Amino acid sequence: MADRAEQDPREAIWIARVVAHDDHEAFGELVALHQSAVRRFLLRLTSNDSSRADDLAQDTFFKAYKHIRTFQARGRFLSWMFRIAWQLFITEERGSRGFTEVPMPDEIPAEDDASQRVADTRTFDQMMNVLRPDQRAAIVLHYRHELTHPEIAEILDLPLGTVKSLLRRAHTRLREAHGIR
Amino acid sequence: MEFDELLNEDPLPDQGFRRAVMVRVERHRRWRRIAFAIALAVAAVVALIAPPSSVTTAGPELIGGALVLMTLCSLAWIETESGRPRMIKT
């Protein structure tokens, strides 16, 4: 969970090359750098629907390419990408079916069962599904990507107070349901 | 269990994702070049078929042609550049 610390110094150069020269290779490097974070973020939002998440991720990068000249270097590029991804997800969600509720897992393994790391992660995905997409997004952005509350508020286009209560409620919900600290 | 522990996952393998995005980007760039070439060609044809005297005697045909050309260029521009996502402020 050290995304902020691991920000690649070459990122700004690649962005500049795309903006100034429409550099195809530089944009490819940006895709390679951020594909995992954006796809994982969308996987969480889509309840692990990998095909839908990848379609949305492609749309996100394509939109970023088309509008990269409007990116202002005051913010992080990845945050900007998350914002585009969230907007595309919400637009699609509103256009199709509304928020998805996935049933709770039947069985949660014991906390000290460390031998099933993969199974734990899968179970955690199911746990996350008890949350609404906006709560899931806030949790991932805050705990996985270490974004601040104001940054999350920008990405989700919500007031700061709403983001704080969103996180608090999501945390409480997970703690009550599954004992996550 | 802690959030940090569970959310700290290995990076997703690319699995052709970058290539798929770049194909789409390349298609878009090609379309823009074609749109630009068409607009230029239309402008050239209009310039060629317009009689030299039309500069001084701008009639309804010339004005109409110019408007059509402007509309075509505008549509090409809007198609490739429309919409602006809001910025992240810090």
Structure in a nutshell:
The complex is a heterodimer of chains A (181) and B (90). Chain A has 181 residues and is mostly helical.
Question: Which secondary structure elements does this structure contain, and how are they paired or packed?
Answer:
The complex is a heterodimer of chains A (181) and B (90).
Chain A: H1 11-21, H2 24-45, H3 50-66, H4 77-96, H5 117-128, H6 133-144, H7 149-156, H8 160-178
Helix pairs in contact in A: 1-2, 2-3, 2-4, 3-4, 4-7, 6-8, 7-8
Chain B: H1 3-7, H2 17-49, H3 60-81
Helix pairs in contact in B: 2-3
What is the chains' assembly state?
heterodimer
Query: How many separate helices of chain B?
Result: 3
The end-to-end distance of chain B, rounded to whole angstroms, is: 33 Å
The topology string of helices and strands of chain B comes to: HHH
| Chain pair forming the biggest interface | A-B, 47 and 31 residues
Specify the biggest β-sheet of chain B. none
Mean pLDDT of chain A: 81
